[in-house]
Amino acid sequence: MRMWLATTMLCLPGVAIAQSAAPDPVATSAQGDLAVTIYNNDLALIQDTRQLALPRGRSRQEFADVSAQIRPETVTLTAAGAGIIEQNFDYDLLSPETLMSKSVGQSVTLVRTNPATGAETRETARVLANNGGTIVQVGDRIEILDRSGGRVVFPSLPTNLRARPTLSVTLDSANAGTRPATLNYLSRGLGWKADYVALFDEKVGKLDVQGWVTLTNTTGTTFNAAKTLLVAGAVDTVDGGNRPSFYGGRGTPGSRGNRPGTETAGREQLGDFYLYPLAERTTIANAQTKQVSFLDVAGAPAAKTYFYRNPWLQKLDEAVSVDTVLKFSSSREGGLGDALPAGTVRVYMRDARGAPQFIGESEIPHTPMGSKLALKTGEAFDVKILPVVEKRERISDNRWRTTMRYTLTNARAQGVTVELAQAGLDGWWHDTKITDESQPSTRVDADEAVWHVAVPANGTASVTATFDTRF
Amino acid sequence: MRRVLRWLLALLVGALASAAPAQTVSPAPDRVAVTIYRAPRRAPDQAIDRAWLQGYALITEQRRVTIPAGRTTLRFEGVAAGILPESAIVTGLPHGVREKNLDADLLSPRSLYAGSFGRPVTIRHTIAKRIVEEEAILRSGPDGAAILQTRDGFIAADCAPSQDALVYNRVPPTLAAKPTLSVELDSPAAASVTVTLSYLAWGFDWQANYVATLRPDGQSADLLAWVTLASSDTTSFADAETMVVAGAVKREGSAPNPAWSARDESLTFTCFARPIEIPVLAALAPPAPALVVSAPAPMAMDIVVTGSRVRVAGFVQQEDLGDLKLYRVPDRTTVAALAQKQVALLDRVAVPVGIIYVSTIDSDGDATPPRITLRLRNRTDQGLGVPLPAGPVALFQRRGDTALLIGEGAIADKAVGEEVEAGVAEATQVTIESAHPASGKDWEAYRLTARNANSYPVRFEARFAGENLPRMSRMTKKLVRKDGKAIWSVEIPANGTRSFGYRIKGRD
């Protein structure tokens, strides 16, 4: 301890002079050769290979600059010719308070300065207790320490108090020497998702898509020159991950027309997951958001459609806008030709002057190649629908007859077709019937009937349907 | 000894680092365009909350930069503080970008302290006007500030008679003053290029505001509309091409509340006294360090009115953007930090309107008090026929030289051809009474009496749910069907009374 202290103190004046040459210890971390594997659900596997100089026999090694959000229970260390005795993760934080508490029963120096002359007097004090206040004994006087009592100088720091949580491993080495040691651990605070920039050209029905991997580091630690691999998947961990359900099932809130694909993308896979290795080593700085390109497709076919889903018996006072839905595919033929990791698709269109403007965004789950996508981007200002309950009568003890009228209006200069779904047809009883309708519907599933309604330019269209239901 | 070796190593790496990639800084955009989108979930009648603007903007900047050959980091300064880094698009670089980074590790009292761990600092003791400086090394983290190692031993700063302050001798190199967007480039040759940078940022909002002034005939009104836009960003966009977008745009996230999302970046020096820990209470967490929530900056609101009723200099120009409506402010303008601005949307005289009194009747015969409602058709042959974005409507009536406010309502987005209604106030001189004169085995009889205490006739509408019509009988007047409603529409003469009787079959 004493020798270590001496060397640091020796360094002090030198540092002040060498400052302009900027040998910055922040830039030099204790990290070794880093490989970081990042999953989607706020989880990363970090492999850190450092050169360890081990003496023969037992020694305790501290590992500085590991992730501040390390999950210490997941740490493993492998070093040739050395066995692990124990691993410790110490997080008793060094602060004035803890330092004083650990000094109870020990001696400290009290330095008093004469405010008039600046002359210092020194006394040795024994710390009796530190409960709600510090009580010291100076000679035969007992004092409660306060600011005016003088400056407390501690001779040393307790070994188990840490400036930051510290990982240490006690090793037993068969021989002395320097060798690579690989530290593996899981950490929170690192995650990634995909972000897609989709430029839609409505006139020609084409979509240009760029895919970016966005990784974020909120660990509190910078990872220097790390070999980085992204895994498109949320591996199950004890604390679980959650993913949006999309293709869904009953009561799916999304648009109709999403279907997962069955094609395999030409990317490296590990088990069920696609892997996205970054081409070069990169530094993932603390509090940084980093984006790297992984997909660039031009001219994929895409179409804009309109969709509205009316819940059972919903009637409105005012017409509402229908959803604008962008449809495209991730197939090799006629699509983006790649698997799409989960993320957000942001859609842009060019304005009258040719500048791209944002028209809406939608999240997608991990999407295999060959999928059909129907993403809601927003609602159409000029295409509206007013669903009303025209008539509702009880026709027997347990049957009702309900007539719905859907009035669609289009203020655009082009005709449009709206996919109109009436939901809620499959309640507890499975015998809902449509007894009359103004145009044929498709019963796409037990719960929904769908009409494709053509609405002329600057015109109106309406659909009526009579339902025979249990309630 | 190891320590010394590490220092040597640090020197070496430091030298290497300085030979690493060049930096090019683009201090500000040369041209900027700002497109503002309305807060996604704000209702038409809900006012803009200037303390928490929940809309957003697409900001498109053009920057002229000269990039050297080889590997470079190009830093963009002066981007919006509310930038969503994942939405950033950089185009115009001949060889693309290797990666984009937004660094948000900011220089603050806390990060300066944390970044100086194990480094030499100077403690400045001030005691009775005497200043003594002492060399020391930082030995604690920012959560345990501040323990320093001096020549004497270990001390805690600011726990003695003297006032202590720390003097650092350098800024940790990774800390930036503001969140900074940068891109990594590989360029085979030096080039001077125009880069287009676009990104989304929270902290903007806009709405339309309508002012309708009834003309003396009571059958028409002068309609004036404004676009009101606001920015709570700390960056000003000078001479910006400014646009707003109307229509519902889907967003997955929502604007963070500035009052909650402030990170505590302050540094507090603590001293020795330790609260007494009773073993039973030991499970309780220690008291949280006093959270210094930075109060929202006082809103210096410039209400900039760029036109007035008598001379509207220029209107926003509307164009279609897919299924949305885009409005362009005619001239370049400054979207100032923490400011609100208004631009004229439309100005029409003598638009035919109707003032009607509307009551809604439920299936139990209960009637809501009549509301004064402004009604108009958004059609070219009715003097209008333009898309009307959502926003509040204020109805005024002339009184001599001035105009008095009758009431305020709101409209949702209205397309061309739609009927527009805005209930602006509850009537005081037109009343509705619902009586229940008789009932039978499975029916109830009701009588509505509408009265007008005004010295002029009014149009009154009682609205029934349309699906109840088959259950209604013995109606004394014929009802009209409209938009799913069954309506008793009647003109009540000046100081007159009208009534309507009907029966409804009970719910079985």
Explained architecture:
With 471 residues, chain A is mainly beta. Among the domains of chain A are: 2-91 and 162-187, Immunoglobulin-like; 96-153, SH3 type barrels. Helix content of chain A is 5%, strand content 53%. The N and C termini of chain A lie far apart (83 Å). Chain B has 508 residues and is mainly β. Among the domains of chain B are: 21-77 and 189-249 and 301-355 and 376-418, no CATH class; 109-167; 429-508, Sandwich (Immunoglobulin-like). Helix content of chain B is 5%, strand content 48%. In chain B, strands 2, 3, 5, 13, 14, 15, 16, 17, 18, 19, 20, 23 and 24 form a 13-stranded mixed sheet that branches. At the A-B interface, helix 1, helix 2, strand 6, strand 10 and strand 13 of A face helix 1, strand 2, strand 6, strand 8 and strand 10 of B. Strand 19 of chain A pairs antiparallel with strand 6 of chain B, so a sheet runs across the interface.
Q: What key phrases describe this protein's structure?
A:
heterodimer; A: 471 residues; mainly beta; Immunoglobulin-like; SH3 type barrels; 9-stranded mixed sheet; 30 strands; elongated; B: 508 residues; 13-stranded mixed sheet; 6-stranded mixed sheet; 2 helices; 5% helix; 48% strand; disordered N terminus
Uncertain stretches of chain A: 1-27, 237-245, 248-252
Q: Using the CA coordinates, give the radius of gyration of chain B.
A: 34 Å
Query: Describe the biggest sheet of chain B?
Result: 13 strands, mixed
Q: Between the first and last Cα atoms of chain B, what is the distance in angstroms?
A: 95 Å
Taking all Cα atoms into account, the compactness measure Rg of chain A is 34 Å
Secondary-structure-based class of chain B equals mainly beta
Indicate the proportion of strand residues of chain A.
over 45%
Average pLDDT for all residues of chain A: 85
Q: How many beta-strand runs of chain A? A: 30
Oligomer: heterodimer
Going across the biggest sheet of chain A, name each strand in turn. Answer: 27-30-25-24-21-20-26-29-28
The fraction of residues in strands of chain B falls at over 45%
Total number of beta strands of chain B: 32
State the helicity of chain A in percent bands: under 10%
Report the end-to-end length of chain A measured between terminal Cα atoms: 83 Å
CATH topology of the domain at 2-91 and 162-187 in chain A: Immunoglobulin-like
Main sheet makeup of chain A: 9 strands, mixed
What is the helical fraction of chain B, as a range of percent? under 10%
